[in-house]
Queue: 4 jobs
Job 1
Amino acid sequence: MIIGQILKDALERNASDVILTSDTFPVFKIFGHTRYQEEYWILDQKELQQQILGLMNEQQRDTFKRDLELDFGIDLKNHSRFRVNVFSEKKWLWIVFRPIANKVASFEDLWLPEQVLDFTKKKHGLVLVTGSVWSWKSTTLTSLIETINNHKHKHIITVEDPIEYTFKNEQSIIEQREVWTHTRSFENGLKYALRQASDVIMIWEMRDLETFRLALRAAETGNLVFATLHTSGAARTVSRVIDMFPPEEKEQIRSQLADSLVWVIWQELLERKDRDGRVLASELLVNTTSVSNMIRKDTPHLIQWAIETWAGDWMVTMKRSLQNLKERWLID
């Protein structure tokens, strides 16, 4: 199967993404740069469509025919798991593959602030991992969940679209639920997780208001909830969450967030200076008593000041994170 060989070659070349469509050569994205792979022949539309549909089960094919786009996961035996997105554009079908690491990245590999490890010991609250589309948010979440899995006796439930890294039970027991395969939506998966004796809940992405409401409720009622958001800036994330809600709910949401938020990390990937690859820069906001009061009193503009004031103790600014990477000769 031509797609299988393309994916194997992509893994050998450390490609972060593989992009296929008709009438052009396959494209590998390597360290942020797209490169045509001209050693392959160009697939025509009929051949590509047959191969794409062959990757799906019957339910996925029906969903794709209805919605014209689909996220799902596949396993390339003895090699890797891939997250897959198929979509239509003009007259062509496109498919994008993203390999999922077989091994969970360590905190040392991710260059995360050391303080983050302490917060995996919390019994309840809301943790938000934020950043752009390609900033290793899911990698960070996976590392956090695996840390809990290895050191704590917890019942962990994940709601994903699709399932990426496959966890194995260590000290904890983990249930992984995929949207449309095991539950109808993030909202449904989260709602029923509250009835399944959960201790830790991981939501791959906060996509709607009801999911936010349920996440806050879960954090208030004894769960440690991890989730991702597409935002930039730890302080701006707080404003973004509150602004999503209608005016009549904002006061209640500020109160819930002030009580439930544990920390927010904003992270971005940068090209390394010392060798090929990427390195993570991050900003950490911790919900101290002062920050909680800022959220409750609707003074989010002071939160960035709080990060800068307490940087070096509990918090980390993006500026300081970049400076540390520069001092280690990892970035320009």
Job 2
Amino acid sequence: MTLRNKVSDALKDAMKAKDATRLSTLRLINAAIKDRDIAARSEGNDEGVGDPEVLQILGKMVKQRIESARAYEEGGRLELAEQERDEIKVIEGFLPKQLSDDEIETAVDKAIKATGATTIRDMGKVMGALKEKYTGQMDFGRVGGMVKERLS
């Protein structure tokens, strides 16, 4: 079952359960997927986006909500920060298990060996290999620093 189908099924379940928070978050996910589908169609991809792109969308949504929650907390809007955290929980339910720090380091080392990377110029190859295999399982902003450090 694709992620898109899992989101649709969860949306139907949330409607039946009258879970307003979950329902609104799932609708936001659906809208983001449809937006990306429209963009893909304009680029000639009539099938829309697949699971790797959906994972990227979900990862981006989580990151946005983390930043929003932090901003709300700093502004003293704790109820809005809590709402953002609730949305994060719903979105994370569709993401694969996040890798631990040790697992990330192992994955980075394997990707460097597999691509034969030796200098910082090879960073793109390494990041591409990691994204291909671990999309949705690690924060690539943080991983980029690790790769850069190892190749310097």
Job 3
Amino acid sequence: MMRCQAILPPTVGRVARSTCPKINKEIRDRTSARLNFYQGRGKQALTERITELNREWDTERVLETNAASVVLASSLVGYKKSKCCCFLITGTVGFFFLQHALQGWCPPLPVIRKLGVRTAEEISREKTVIKLMRGDFSHHVKCAEDILKAAQKN
């Protein structure tokens, strides 16, 4: 088990590591521009932005939805036509999904990232900055539990 952990990238940051640096920069620049837009806005606008961020689909959700859709469609076609190679599609999607789970990369990922779909970490970072702007962490917190509650606040 330890050998696999040494070979495989950590969960956090694996998609960004597998993404073209230019695309990562474009995504970061768009995030930075949005944060600059919200700088100095009122609490209501910041709270609305957090609500939007909570609804935003990350790369994992987009990949899971696409993979499940292809598997379902090819399985249905394969079931209807017994002499069909649709199950090869199912196997290919499964292989790509496993590759993504282990390495953080699969063939559809560059397209998804080029479309601007962010990772959960990227979305969470923006949400944390918005919460800082809103003042969620400015009060004097005395214990880790209070800090955790402030971080989880919507």
Job 4
Amino acid sequence: MRLQDEPDIPAQINIVPMIDVIFAILTFFIMSTLFLTRQEGLPVNLPKAATSQQAQIPTKITVTVEASGQVSLNKKPTTVAALTEQIRTLMGTNPESIVVINADTKVEHGNIVAVMDQVRQVKGAKLAIATKK
């Protein structure tokens, strides 16, 4: 039985356990992201060899199709029919290259398909279409 003179204690929410849980979750995410970094091996001084090969960087080749229909390969005017051989020449001994098509929005769909068809005839060439956000 309570006395009438005793003041009511306001209800309180204790947030200390919630803060403990948040810090535990934060610690888990920090520790797990540290283990997600890709490590290819221990840091060592590698020996030198005369016959070693450098990692090959893919060649970037740009095909531009202007609104007028003019086709350019790396800023040099060309024709659609000549693209396959010119791309093969630019690729050289590099087995993989990225061919980026920059086409104006006013270019007809059929012209782009013709350019893509020429690029696909080159073995090892990867096709990309340039866009803007």
